[in-house]
């Protein structure tokens, strides 16, 4: 990648302060043409960009599940299975799978697992699963996490085989 007029130009990669990496074409310092964003959580967004705006693209989660903005049937009101359960099958009836990742990550005390990392409601900071800063939660995200996400202090019942 070259600098033209003080702005990045050409093919290459650029890592943002959040750890997200862009690989593709830049024109006049903006994403332009084919390129992809690689997120620290393992997800990726491949798109055709025009002056920094994605014109069409596809997001793929770290586990390989591709997001569809129309006719999205994953984890809807009719089928609540995780993607790993769809791919690998369900566990026996008396064994619960709490997250898509099995076994789930251990949540630090006092925190929540918000899907792309851990959230500390006292500091309102979200860190990734390697404990690197991701973002500060605004009021809406804070309320959503408190209302819907798994907490470290939730009691879980482990499967114990019958004697």
Give an account of the 3D structure.
It contains two helices and eleven strands. The protein has helices at 83-88, 139-148; strands at 2-4, 7-15, 21-27, 30-38, 44-50, 53-60, 112-113, 118-120, 125-127, 133-136, 150-151. The strands form two sheets. It has a six-stranded antiparallel sheet, with no helix packed on it. It has a five-stranded antiparallel sheet with strand order 10-9-8-7-11, covered by helices on one side. A hairpin with a 2-residue loop joins strand 1 (2-4) and strand 2. The radius of gyration is 20 Å and the shape is globular. The model has no long low-confidence stretch (mean pLDDT 83).
Helix content: under 10%
Please state the CA-atom Rg, rounded to the nearest Å: 20 Å
Element pattern in H and E: EEEEEEHEEEEHE
Strand order of the largest sheet: 1-2-3-4-5-6
Shape: globular
Q: How many individual β-strands?
A: 11
Task: Provide a quick synopsis of the model.
With 163 residues, the chain is mainly beta. Helices cover 10% and strands 35% of the residues. The chain has helices spanning 83-88, 139-148, and strands at 2-4, 7-15, 21-27, 30-38, 44-50, 53-60, 112-113, 118-120, 125-127, 133-136, 150-151.
Question: What are the defining features of this structure?
Answer:
5-stranded antiparallel sheet, 11 strands, 163 residues, 2 helices, globular, mainly beta, 6-stranded antiparallel sheet
Question: How is this fold's topology laid out?
Answer:
Layout: E1 2-4, E2 7-15, E3 21-27, E4 30-38, E5 44-50, E6 53-60, H1 83-88, E7 112-113, E8 118-120, E9 125-127, E10 133-136, H2 139-148, E11 150-151
Antiparallel strand pairs: 1-2, 2-3, 3-4, 4-5, 5-6, 7-8, 7-11, 8-9, 9-10
